[in-house]
Amino acid sequence: MNVSRLLFVDDEEGFLELYRAAFGRDGYAVETAATIEGARERVAQGGIDLVVLDIRLGEASGLALLRELKARDSRLPVVLATAYARYQDDFSSWLADAYIVKSSDLNELKQAVRRCLGTAR
Amino acid sequence: MSSSRGGPGPRERALRSERTRHLRERGPALRTIRPRRVLDLLRRVSEVLETVVDPEVAAWSVLLAYTAGEGLGFNRAFLLLADGDHLRGWFGVGPRTRDEARQVWAEMRMHGVLPLDRLAQPDTRVVETEQRRHAATLASLSHAVERGCGAWRRAFIGRSSHPNPCVRHWVTALESRELVVVPLMASGRPWGVVLADNFVTHAPVYHATLEAAETLAHYLRAALERTQLLRRVQEEKRKRLTAEHATAILETARALAHDLKNPLALAGGVARELMAAAPENRDTLLRQLGIAAAAISRAEQRVGELVDGLASRADGIVPEPVEVGGLVDRVVGAFRPLAGSRGVRMLCYHPARPLMAGAVVRSLERCLENLVVNALEALRESGGEVHAAVHEDGDWVRIEVADNGQPLPPALRTDPFAGGITTRRGGSGLGLASVRTLAEAMGARVEYDEREPGWVRFTLFLRRWS
Predict the structure, then answer these.
(1) CA nearest A23: which of B134, B242, B277?
(2) What distance in Å separates residue A11's CA from the closest CA in chain B?
(3) Which residue of A has its CA nearest to B255?
(4) What pTM did the predictor assign?
(5) Across all residues in chain A, what is the average pLDDT?
(6) Which residue of B has its CA nearest to A23?
(7) Is the separation of the CB atoms in A80 and A93 below 8 Å?
(8) Is the pLDDT of residue B14 over 80?
(9) How far is B320 from chain A (nearest CA, A)?
C-alpha cells in the first residue's frame, strides 16, 4: 500500500512539529516547509500527494502559492489551514480543495486530508 | 413726482399703476411695520444663521422670526422644499389649531415669553419636537410642482381662487383665507416655498411684512444650502471614517487570528496530541511541552498588548515605536546647562544599539522632563549627581532617573504619584502625578524606590516594541 506524502507549509515551527507527530502517527509520510520558497522547491521535486497550506506566512501570502501550485498542477490537492475564517471571502481561496480554520482539534483537518486524498488522482 | 398744475404726469401715472398692480397681487399695505424693527429682526436672524450648523435649526430660526409677535407676527409658517418634481413639507412652526393657538399664546403672555429670545440658543430637542408636531400638516402640504410655479418671482398672497393648483392645494390644506407664498426659485423652478398665514387672528398682511418675509426666506435658503452642504461633507467624512475603521477592524481581526488564535490552537493541539499518544522519550515530551508553553506565553503577551492598546486608545493616545536611548539622551542633554549651573553632574547611559518601546514621544518627553526636574530640585541645595539609564528588561524597556539628593519626605513615600503634596521635589506636587497619568495612558507604568542607600530612583517601564 502506498503511503500518502503530505507537505505542510506553515511559518510556525510549532505547528509543523505538531503536524509531523499527529499525521505521522496516522501513517502519512509528513514533510514540512516554513517558507513559500521551500514549499515551491519541494513540490517541484515531485512525489507530494497533498499540500496543507497556511495563508499568512510571515510577510508572504499562502494564497499566492496556492495559485502557483494550481497553475502548475490543478490535480494536486491543496488544503488551506488558517486561523482567520474570513479569508474564505477572498476568491483566491476558492481554488483550494478545502478550507479549514485552525483549531486545537485536528480532526477536521484530518478529515479534509482524507477526503481530498480520496478524490484526488 | 406729481405735477403742480393739471393731472399727474406720465411718470406719476406709471408709479400709481405699479402701486395698484402691486396691491392687487400682493395684498393691501394697510400700514407698514416700522423699518427699524424689521432691520433689527433681520440682523438678529442673520447673526443666528451665521453660526447654525443644522438645516433644521436654520429653518426653525427663520420660521420663528416669521411667527414671533416681536417678529413678523404670522400665526404659523411652513417651509416646503423641492424634491424631484414635488414640493414637500419640511418644517413648520406655530400652533396647529385655533384652540392650541389661544392656549399657547395665553401661556406666553402670562409668563412674558418673547419667542425671539430663544433664537440665541436654539434647543435641538425643541426643534425636533416642532418638526414632529407638524408632520401630518407638512405631509398634507406636499404637492407636485405645477407648470405655473415656474413663473413665480416675488412673494404674493394666495387665496382659494388662485389660478395655480399648488396654491389652491395649500390654501385648502391649511384652511387659510389669505396665505402668504414666498417662492424661492432656482433655474426657473421652485427650490422651495415658505408659506405663512394668520389663520387665527385673520390679521391683514402688510406690504412691508411681505417684503421682510421675502428677505428672511432668502436668508433661510442661503443658510439651508450652507448647512446642507456642511451636513453632506460631515456625512462623507463619517462614511470615510467608518470605512477606515472597518478596514482597521478587519486588519486587527486578521492580526488577532494570527497572533492569538494560532498559538492557542497550537498549544491545545499539542496538549491533545500528548493525551492521544504521550511520547516515551522524555526529551520529545519536554520539547512538545515547550512548544505549548511558548505558544501560551505568546498569546498571553499579545493579550496584554491588546489590553494596553485598547486602554490607551480609549484615552485617545496610541503608542508608536520610539527609540528610547536617543530620546533619553536628548531630554537629559537639554538639562545639562541648568544642572551645570547648579553644580549637578548628569550621567546618561543607554545601550549602543537602538532600543524600541511603545510610547508617545511628547508624553514620554514630558515624563522624563518631570523626573529630571524633580531630581534637580532635590539637589538644589547640595549639588550631586543625576543618573539616567535605559535598560532592557524582558518585555519591558526600563528608564531610570536617580539622584543622590534629599530623600523623599515621609508624606510622599507612600504614594509619591498621588499629587497635591508640595515639597521642594516636584514643585507643585503635580509633576510626579502627571508622570503616572501620562505613563499609564501610554500603557507604561512608573515606580519609585530608595533601595540603594542615598539614592532616590524613579523607573518608567515601557512596553518593548517588537
Answers:
(1) B277
(2) 11
(3) A84
(4) 0.48
(5) 89
(6) B273
(7) yes
(8) no
(9) 20
